[in-house]
Amino acid sequence: MLNNWLKIAFINYKKNWLSTAINLFGLTVGLTGFMLILLHWNDEESFEKWNPKKDQIYYFQSYYKTDNSYGNNISVPMARRAKEVIPGVEDYVLFNGSGIGLKMTTKYKTAYQQEGMTGTESFFNFFPFKLVSGTYKNALKGEGVIALSTIAAKNLFGTTNAAGESVKFDGKNYVVTAVYELPKDNSQIKPQFIINPVQQIKDDEKNWGNFNYGCFFMLKKGTNIDDLQQKFLKEIFEYRAKLDKDSSGMTPQQYLDLYGPTGSVFTPLDEIKLHAKASWFGSPDFKTIMILFTLSVLIVVLSAINFINLKTAQASQRAKEIGVRKAIGSTRSNLIVQFLMETFVICIASYLLSLALTELLLPSFNKFFDKEMKMNDWHIYFDSFVMVILVTLISGLIPAMYLSNFKAIETLKGNFARSKHGIWLRNGILTLQLIISSFFIIGGLIVNQQVKYMMNKDLGYSGKQILIINFSESNPKSWLKYERLRTEMSKIPGVAEVSYGEIVPGSNRSSSSNVDFMDKSIQAQHGSMDYNYLQFMNVKLKKGRWLDPNLSSDTINNVLVNEAFVKKFGWNDDEVFKNEIRPGFDTKKYNIVGIVKDFNIRSLRTAIDPVIFFHYKETEWKRLNVYNIQLKIKPDDIDGTVKRIKKYWSGSVEPGYPFDYFFVDQKFAKTFEKYKRQQTLFTILNAMVLMVALLGLFALSSLMIEQKLKDVAIKKTLGASDGILIMGLTKQFLWITLVAVLISIPISYYLMNEWLKDFAYRIDMPVWPFMISLVVLLVLTFAVVSIKAYKATKVSLVKYLKYE
């Protein structure tokens, strides 16, 4: 029986070769897109799976109800108290630096070692990397110890057996206590060396408000996260509020409402990459993954729709076969299984082709996402095969049910075509296909428009020809170094101007604190700077004045603020200069002397934060943390000037350290890369959808017009013109297209409006993408269908009317 079914299947494949080719092509393209996005998703979900303690390790994040925002920081006393008083907390590890680079000296060589990290002494209890040399016991206890990766050990000592060796940096000697091998699996935590910031921890151990650290908590098995969050609120946040309430004159609840945090979030270690609310290790973006995955599934659905439509349209060719088989005793269930088998053969062939195509496209896909994914995960094969089974059932069962319902007597008499059931089914499924196509066109145009808007938006500053050079992290008197370099580097030919600013567009490095006025408090970014920095960046002054080097008060307690700062407090511009503010980074009050126009320092996806600008000498903390020098380069010889600056820097300023620099405009442009990738992917998916949909439409219209050739011959005999015949054959499809686009408009509007809500700076929802979608689909539908309709008008009248 199976052999007979296969013979019948291949006869029909050959007879309807165009439909077969389109089904194969559509399903192959759809499954390939599905596999590639699934690979990407699985790769993102695979981070930290190597860690045997991942089920007990949770990443701490704080929640601020007032701003509905999340933070990724904690203070030392908060973490310590959590371990002491909350039963579910077994241990914690604090860190406050990642990607650290230091020039290290050993008895063998001096080398610059990158990608270091700070961590408290329980670090290896949380991240048990494979130990190669030394011991983890007390490996990070106290000052003067360091742990190295095998890569760092080879770089510094030429061997991995480096435990007990000595290394010197920042003027201090450190003993190598352990050498470890980093996991080959995906991980965001892969430090090449680890040091314990002992002195900094001591300095911060009583400062409840110094949120300088990230934190992982080790929880006891069975700990309820909801209970943990409640206990954290009561035992940590409210406890801190009670400590400060006497000095602030507020109740604990008022203190929490004003300063926060008001809640906590604990994310499992292996979910940080995609699902954390805020992270030290990069912004999670699960929503984008889900959008791409959904779009890839929609392409597979479109391919299944093609299959259903073409199978039901071929009903007339299979009707007599079904009637004969029913007449000789074949059951309905036998017929359904046969048709499902025919569908499965096409689907499994598409699956095998898609595996080959995925392997072929994977190198380019890896380059696009800067990854090294491989087809070595059985989940990919299993999940994609499950999709094949689902497609087989969905696209095979509907036509199978429809065809198996034919009655033997009617089909043998030739009356099967009189039922309108099949026509409604085909039209309904074709409408769904065109709805999806319309959504992709509308969505693609809106995505393009949003990305174009962001790239062309006035950022409020000019970063052209501004070069930023970062200092090494180990300078104890960084402001003196900056002031010396400002004088010396301004003499380099090609350097037009020199300045310093903590707020650097395109950089993630920043700090913030509360700023108080009377009974209100806001969170504001710190903008320590040199006098000329805002003018240097071509930021516009809205009201008031700039900081003046001739006024001593401008290095004591005078500041500027941006428009977002003023708006956050609810002031008008005149009120600003009458109010004294108290920022959390100092104990004295400050006067506002100027308001500057808002300018973007981060991605346009987020709103501009309130910023307080002040001279770096106004507070000791910022004076000790001047970390860059910025130079405006003359436009006539940029490359030559950069070479001269690099030669001076490498020879006189920081020999042995890399020349760590970037141009501001180029750095900020990188914030658009993610959205450009989304734009490119949406464009590719859009093209795939239209191609699959139009091929299916062409095949379906061909089959349906074939069934009307006798009607065409009769009308032509009666004098109908080619234009009338073509319009008569195409108008049904044009009506279906019109209805589909009208249905898709509210759906597309809602979904794209939800997508745009993620951007603080976004376009107003335009009307023209909806109009273009309608016009494009109507034109393409007419073009595709009219090709076959035109051929139908050239039929041989004798061939179709000789028996009439």
Automatic annotation (TrEMBL):
InterPro entries: ABC3_permease_C (IPR003838), MacB_PCD (IPR025857), Macrolide_Exporter_MacB (IPR050250). It holds the Pfam family FtsX. It comes from the Bacteria. The chain crosses the membrane at residues 21-41, 289-310, 335-358, 378-403, 424-447, 681-705, 733-752, 767-790. GO terms for cellular component: plasma membrane. Its EC number is 3.6.3.-. It is a multi-pass membrane protein. Keywords: ATP-binding, Cell membrane, Hydrolase, Membrane, Nucleotide-binding, Transmembrane, Transmembrane helix. It is found in: Cell membrane. One of its GO terms (molecular function) is transmembrane transporter activity. Its main location: membrane. The keyword Transmembrane applies. The keyword ATP-binding applies. Residues 294-405, 685-796 form the ABC3 transporter permease C-terminal domain. Residues 20-231, 432-647 form the MacB-like periplasmic core domain. This is ABC transporter permease. It comes from Chryseobacterium carnipullorum.
